[in-house]
Amino acid sequence: MSETLHRQHKAHLDNLLSAYRSLMAQYDYDSIALYSGHATPHYGDDQMPSFQAFGHFVHWVPLWEAEHSWLVIHPDKRPTLYLYAPNDFWHLPTMLPEEPWVAEFDVQLCTDAITPPLTDNTAIVGDIAALRASGGALANGQANPDALIQALDELRIIKSDYEITCLREANRLAMAGHEAAHAAFAGACCELDIQLAYLAASRQRESHTPYSNIIGMNQHAGVLHYQYYDVSAPKQRYSLLVDAGRRFRGYSADITRTHVGPDAPALFEALINAMHAVKDRLIASLTPGVDFIALHEQMHHELAEVMIDHDLFRGSREAAIAEGITRAFCPHGLGHSLGVQVHDVAGLRTASGEPAPAPENHPALRLTRTLTPGMVITIEPGLYFIPMLLAPLRNTSLPINWTLVDQLMPCGGIRVEDNIVITSDGFHNLTP
């Protein structure tokens, strides 16, 4: 591990400690206790699903699989990390790495799942309902106070140098997986084998991915959150869409690439290139002060131009937008905040904590803020051929070139996605 990363992590922790202490003083709390959470078994079973620790806990401690653990931040001494490390021969207990950040905490290894000693004036942040359901005792403290939660979320919207370094490394590792996935597709592999190639090249097991990888061939590329992996290769290969990520110290990459297959119409490759160009133009316009809703609307203007330039729509750009045509061909938002969580917190609030919901015409938009230096966001324009969304348009007189649309329908769709840091004078693309 590089000395630079360790120095950045130390500065990150110092800034967090200062911010938390300011919040304790502002809201008159004795301490703030962050609960990491825990996995619960499937109903009627003793098997556990994959677990990831609560984001505010991971914001401090790069142990994103740590269950039943607590971090208590005090106003006048080092934070106390109660790390659950049971005596267990069935599983390997959580272990502390030999890294400098450990010295920033008073670490107490706990062989039992405990609740630390807390005063009545402690703010407790985490899944308290699950804790109580599992038999955890909380005699004292104030659970998840709204004003504090909003303030802690706001601390996560602007990333430190340490966090950006982690996100950059997550991107590097994820892109190795994307390259391997493309090679497997070229080798006529099935979706499952492409997924396995991705996991091997990005050096992770499936339960460690920050979200379920989307590996969709042909029409599956038009299912926005396609959740399966076919075990047989299709007879014809029109397209491959890979939306897949990687964690590094709890921070998540979220990258999408679409590839043309040997059986696709020539127009599909031209559309992939056009959507890459749209992505790049949108990224080039990123700078502090940009309204993300306006940028999302600009994506629809760009998409209308692509459809007109490639003869998919024979009307005006204004008509394509006003009639909802671009929304039918791209029903999701342009992007979202990225960090410990793939869809990171505070995207639908203003900096002062006021709600900033998605516009009525774009309900799937996950980010409505004005861009600020230190934000990390995704930019992911798309163009899809989804029968359910296009069916209502077929009954209209709108000048859609259905002959071309039907030729492209077996390809499913296109999405391209990069991860971007907003800097003081523009942007930096983390996706190599």
TrEMBL record:
Peptidase M24 domain boundaries: 166-423
Keywords in alphabetical order: Dipeptidase, Hydrolase, Manganese, Metal-binding, Metalloprotease, Protease
Gene3D superfamilies with a match to the protein in the record: Creatinase/methionine aminopeptidase superfamily, Creatinase/prolidase N-terminal domain
Cofactor or coenzyme needed: Mn(2+)
Keyword Lyase in record: no
Positions of Mn(2+) 1 binding: 254, 336, 380, 417
Binding site for Mn(2+) 2: 243, 254, 417
Listed transmembrane segments: none
InterPro entries referenced in this protein's UniProt entry, alphabetically: Creatin/AminoP/Spt16_N, Creatinase/aminopeptidase-like, PepQ_N, Pept_M24, Peptidase_M24B_aminopep-P_CS, X-Pro_dipept-like, X_Pro_dipept
Family the entry assigns: Belongs to the peptidase M24B family. Bacterial-type prolidase subfamily.
Its biological purpose: Splits dipeptides with a prolyl residue in the C-terminal position.
Protein name per Swiss-Prot or TrEMBL: Xaa-Pro dipeptidase
Lineage of producing organism: Bacteria, Pseudomonadati, Pseudomonadota, Gammaproteobacteria, Oceanospirillales
